[in-house]
Amino acid sequence: MPKDPKVDAYIKNAGEFAQPILHHLRNLVHAACPKVEETIKWGFPNFEYKGLLCNMAAFKQHCAFGFWKTRLMKDAKDMMGQNAYGMGHLGKIKSLSDLPPDKKIKQWVAEAMKLNDLDVKLPERQRRKPAAPEVVPPNLQKALRNNKAAETKFSQFSASQRNEYIEWINEAKTEETLQSRIATTIEWVSEGKTRNWKYERKK
Questions:
Q1: One domain, residues 92 and 21
Q2: For the whole model, what pTM was predicted?
Q3: Rounded-to-integer distance, Cα 165 and Cα 184, Å
Q4: Which tens digits make up the pLDDT trace of 112-127?
Q5: Do 95 and 165 fall within a single domain?
Q6: Based on the domain organization, do 15 and 115 belong to the same domain?
């Protein structure tokens, strides 16, 4: 299947250390599942085959990779055991050497495909729509790096407060709107204001 230009852009905008990792994971998924389709969900690349299959993301100092139905897979215990920080099931991936062998990853992709082929469902409590993961868009990351006050304040916000800004920026329909929202975000965050500060009750 053709590769999504949005995923190309995501990888291009990722950190230099992350790009070879994301390219490698992407190629392995396509090799193991030729019919896989790419998309951007929650601000990061997802791979679909008869439903959600797996995903990957880049952060400031590591990458993450995980499967949608990990809990139903044979190696779930080992994979979930490495997930002490939230997203992803292979620990914090900082270089290609942190990845399991290619053969193992392809086996996992094949197993995830089979689960979707058989339409195996996650337990009811797992099928609830999860909250959007906290993945800072690359353009916002760049803007924050250029404004130390905003970067510091943003890091001090709660996860839900950061996500309010992230979702607002991700919802922009045009480049003009996107740039306007990023500028506003930097201005407000540098002043310690949350996304909905205008509506918060004054103490």
A1: yes
A2: 0.60
A3: 10
A4: 999 999 998 887 654 4
A5: no
A6: yes
pLDDT tens string 129-181: 555 556 888 899 999 999 999 999 999 998 888 988 998 998 888 989 999 99
Is residue 161 located within the same domain as residue 184? Answer: yes
Domain that includes residue 38, residue range = 5-126
3-state helix/strand/coil string of the chain = CCCCHHHHHHHHHCCCCHHHHHHHHHHHHHHHCCCCEEEEECCEEEEECCCEEEEEEECCCCEEEEECCHHHCCCHHHHHHCCCCCCCCCCCECCHHHCCCHHHHHHHHHHHHHHHHCCCCCCHHHCCCCCCCCCCCHHHHHHHHCCHHHHHHHHHCCHHHHHHHHHHHHCCCCHHHHHHHHHHHHHHHHCCCCCCHHHCCCC
Residue 54 located in a structural domain: yes
